[in-house]
Specification:
The protein is of the alpha+beta class. It contains 9 helices and 18 strands.
Length: about 425
């Protein structure tokens, strides 16, 4: 047993070393450019585009297209954070202290107005960085100010996230807005502007003397407005008074992380092991029972019950976190739709099993096929789709364990049950792993 464990751990180590040193980490070709990636920046000399306002200080930028961590290379937008102005950065954490944020918003009171700065590093052409003021940590019914670089021109606009979580520019996109500087240089996008204290958008009055959650995002833009920001977004951990000068932390997204953890555990581990037991142990693990049921079936039922419970809990908490349906377009990422289908299929499985006919019933085959089809569909959607997501090392470990677990079962079959061995290649082929 110890030898097998050492061998498995060695394989896991080799797998992770290959994963972290393979293509995409250290061997990226010079001309590599992911197709359709709006955020990929080809490092080459760029042309500065600035539209400064008279008598305003100029902000200097480095020639590097990466967010530098050396103080002498950091643009002056970080100066005064926590002292004379409040700051909030993307992706959060310690990026402000390290001066390594990919996007940043600063805010301070200036007389009867509120002065903001928006800044983004590695900003490609036709992109934006924007800040939203929200009553909660969820996108919807928010006042948004955008800083955009479109067709070589830098501008700032006012827009609004409606209740359907769609961003719409105001009819007068400069309403309540006074732009004092707009700059694009060496991939660094910067806007400084003032907003008046109060602004009515529809039936809602936004009073900047009140507290708001800060929504910070960046992404592609066009003449019509800003587009979906993908995962380049963050939300402040608490509501902020814009007269504060402290740096603000980002929302850790605990419920989102729990959702992902529960789904990965359910479908990559519990469901996979439960299916493995039903697939390979039904005809071999016989003669051992618990409360009148074969032992393989007892474990199969426990594992699938865990899958069901974790899936339902994960489904509920993500709706609690988002406050409803996601704002991500289905065409951009079908994750939410696939998740709903997976949850529905998983939810009906135990009820189908409860009303299953006797094994000797003439129409038992109908249940067998229905049970297999629903379960297989749910497992395929729940586990194999998640392998395309960035779901941390847990996905890789569970995949490796499951794969080598099946190979280990082949060896056990060959040693203990030679009569079954001849059927294994065909059965594994049907497994489709």
């Amino acid at each position: 047993m110890s030898r097998q464990l050492i061998r498995l751990l060695s394989l896991l180590a080799i797998f992770q070393i290959h994963r972290c040193t393979g293509y995409g980490y250290t061997d990226i070709p010079k001309n590599y450019n992911p197709a359709g990636d709006p955020y990929y920046v080809d490092v080459r000399p760029s042309t500065a585009r600035t539209t400064p306002i008279a008598n305003t200080p100029q902000h200097s930028f480095t020639d590097s297209t990466r967010a530098a961590k050396v103080s002498s290379q950091v643009p002056s937008v970080y100066g005064g954070c926590g002292q004379i102005k409040g700051c909030f950065g993307l992706p959060g954490g310690v990026c402000i202290e390290e001066k390594s944020c990919s996007a940043l918003v600063t805010y301070a009171v200036n007389g009867q107005h509120y002065e903001f700065e928006l800044w983004a590093v590695n900003a490609p052409a036709d992109s934006f960085v924007a800040v939203g003021l929200s009553d909660d940590h969820i996108m919807g019914d928010d006042s948004v100010t955008e800083c955009t670089i479109v067709n070589g021109r830098v501008n700032a606009y006012m827009s609004h996230n409606d209740n359907s979580k769609t961003n719409v520019r105001l009819k007068d996109p400069r309403s309540g807005l006074n732009v004092t500087q707009a700059t694009y240089k060496d991939g660094n996008l910067y806007c400084r502007f003032q907003r008046q204290k109060q602004l009515a958008i529809g039936q809602k009055m936004f009073d900047l003397s009140q507290t708001y959650h800060l929504l910070l995002a960046r992404g592609p833009a066009s003449n019509e407005g800003i587009s979906y920001h993908e995962r380049q977004k963050t939300v402040s951990a608490r509501s902020v008074k814009l007269s504060e000068t402290a740096a603000v932390g980002a929302n850790k997204g605990t419920l989102v992380k729990l959702h992902g953890t529960f789904m990965v555990t359910a479908w990559m581990l519990a469901a996979s092991c439960g299916i493995l037991l039903a697939r390979y142990y039904k005809l071999t693990w016989v003669g051992q029972q618990f409360m009148g049921k074969d032992l393989w079936f007892v474990y199969h039922r426990i594992l699938l019950a865990i899958t069901w419970a974790l899936t339902v809990i994960a489904f509920i908490i993500i709706f609690v976190e988002l406050g409803g349906w996601t704002s991500i377009p289905v065409t951009s990422n079908p994750h939410a739709v696939i998740g709903v289908i997976t949850t529905v299929l998983a939810f009906i499985q135990p009820f189908m099993a409860y009303f299953r006919p006797h094994p000797e019933a003439p129409r038992r085959y109908i249940f067998n096929w229905a049970h297999w089809l629903v379960g297989k569909s749910a497992h395929t959607l729940g586990s194999k789709y998640n392998r395309t997501q960035n779901c941390s090392i847990l996905c890789d470990i569970s995949r490796v364990l499951f794969f080598f677990g099946q190979l280990g079962n082949v060896k056990l079959y060959a040693f203990f049950w030679p009569s079954v061995w001849t059927r294994l290649p065909f059965r594994i082929g049907l497994r489709g792993f």
